[in-house]
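Can you give me the bound-state structure? Components:
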Amino acid sequence: MSADTDTTQIRPTDTSGRRKHAASQSRWAEFRRNKLGSYAALVALLVTWQTWVTVGEVNPIVMPSPVAVAGEMVRMYELGFLVPAFIQSFSAYFAGIALAISVGMAISIGIGLSKLAQVITQPYLWALFAMPRVALIPLLMLWFGLNRQMVVMTVFLSAVVPLVLQVIEGMRTADGTLVRMSQVFCAGRIATLWKVVLPGIVPFVANGMRQSLSRGFIGLIVVELLTGTGGLGTEATRAATNFNTARTMAMIFIMLIVAVLLVILSKALERSASRWRETVAV
Amino acid sequence: MTQLDSTSAALESGEADERSAPAIRRVVSTGRLEYPRAQRIAIGTLSVLGFFTVWWAATTFTDVNPIFLPELGSIRDAVALSYTSGELIPNLQSSVTLFVACMAGSLAIAVPLGILVGAIEPINRTFGTWFWTIYTSPRIVFIPLILIWFGYTTTAKVAIIVLSAVPPATVMIMEGVKTVEGSMLRAARSFGASRFDQLRKIILPGTLPYVGTGIRMGVARGLVGLFGAELFTSRDGLGFLLVDAQTRYNVPMVFGVLTMYLIMCMVMVSASAAAEKRLSRWRD
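Here's the bound-state model for the whole set.
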C-alpha cells in the first residue's frame, strides 16, 4: 500500500513533464486522443435526447427536451429571479465556508498540537465523519428556525468536518525527521510549529478545503431543497412542486455546473498549494 | 494523462480519505510517541463518559433551554415510548433493509460497470471522464427531478440511494482495473489465456482491493443518499420518525433518532471498512 501512495505522489510531476513535451508535438492529436470521444459522447447524448423527445412526443412533464431546458434557463434569467437566487445561495455558502475555515483551522491546529487532545476528540470526530451531516438539518431547523442563519450553519457543519480531519491528519504526519532536526538545532516549540509543522500541513489544508468546498455545497443544496429558505435549491423544489420539469432540470443543470466549477477551482487551489511539496518529494 | 492526474489526486487524498492511514504509524509528530492502543481506547471511553457527564450536569444543574439540550433521561423516555407504541422497530427495519438492499443493488451495477469501463480502452476514453464528472458532482441535486418522476415512493428512495452510491464505487473500480499490470496481462496472453481467463484470473483479483475501496466509498455516499431520500419523502423509516418528531417539536425524540442514525452509520461504515481490509488482504 505504501509503495502505491509513493508512486501516486511522484506521478503528477512526472506526467506534466511528459505532457508538456507532447503538447509541443501536436495539440490537436492529443485532443483527439484524450478528449474527442468524451465530447462526442456528450453531443450524442444530447442529440438522442432531443430526437427522442421530439419524435416520440414525450410528455414535457415527464421529460422536456434539452432545447426547452436551455430556453428555460434564459427565461429564468429574464424573469429576474435567477441572479437573486444565486446571490442568496452564495452569500450563505461563502459565509458558511469562511466560518468553517476559520473555526476549523483553529480547532484542528489546537487538537493537532497535542497527542492527548487527539485521543480525546477522536470518538467525536469519527462519529461526525461517519454520519452524514445532512441528517442534522432537522435539528438545526429546530435550533435556528427557518432562516438563512440555519443555512449558513448547515454549510458550516458540512464543510468543517473534512477540513478538521485533514488538518489533524497533516499535523500527525508531520515529518518526524524534520521535527527532530529542528529540536536538535534547539528550536523551541513555537519555532518548530511555525517553521516545520505548519508549512508541512499546507497540502493537507488545501486538500481539506477542497473537500470542504464540495461538502459545503452539498449541504447548501440539501438544506435549500428541503426548506423553503430561498436560493437555487428552493427554486428547484418550487419548480418541481409546480410540475415545471423544464425549470427543475434547468435549475439542476445550473447547480451541477456551479458544482463542477467549484471542483475545478478547488483542485487548482490544491495543486498550487501542494506544488512545492511534490518537487521536494521527487 | 489528465485521467491519471485526477485519479492520483483523488486516491492520494480527498475522496479516498483513510487510504493514507498506514502512514500515520511510521512518523512521529511533535517528537512525542503515539499512545498505545489500550490507552487510546481507555482515554476515548473516558472522554465519551465525561461528555455525557457534562451533558447530564448541564441539564440538571443549569436551566439550559431543553430545545438546545434535552435531558438524557427524556431522550431515553422518548425512544422507549416510540418502542412501546410499535413505531420504532418497523421504521428502523425499513431503513436498514432499504439501505442494505440498495447497496447490494448498487454493487451489482457498479462492479460490472467499473470493470467494463476500466478494461475496455475505447469505452474508457469516451465515458471515463463523464464518470469522474458525475462522481464529483453532487447527485443530491437530482432529488426534485426524481420526486417528479417517481413521486414520494420507495422507488424514489431507491433511485436516490443508488444514484448516490453507484458513481463512487464505479469510479474506484474503474481506476482499479487500470492499475492491473500490463506485464501480467502480456504474460497471461503469451501462455494462451483467453480474454475471459485474463478477466477472471488477473483483472478480477487485481481489482479486488479497489472493489473494497469502492464498497467503502459507496456506503459512505449511500448513507448521504439514504438520509436525503428519507428526509424528503419521509413516508417511513428513521427519516419519517425524525421529521415527525421535528414537526411536533419533540426535541428529545429528534436526538433519539439521530443517535440511532449515528449507530447505524457507525455499523455500516465499520462493516464496509472491514470489507475493504478483507478484500485487500491478499495483497499485503
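A couple of observations. Residues 169 and 276 of chain A are 19 Å apart (CA to CA). Chain A touches chain B through 93 residues (CB under 8 Å).
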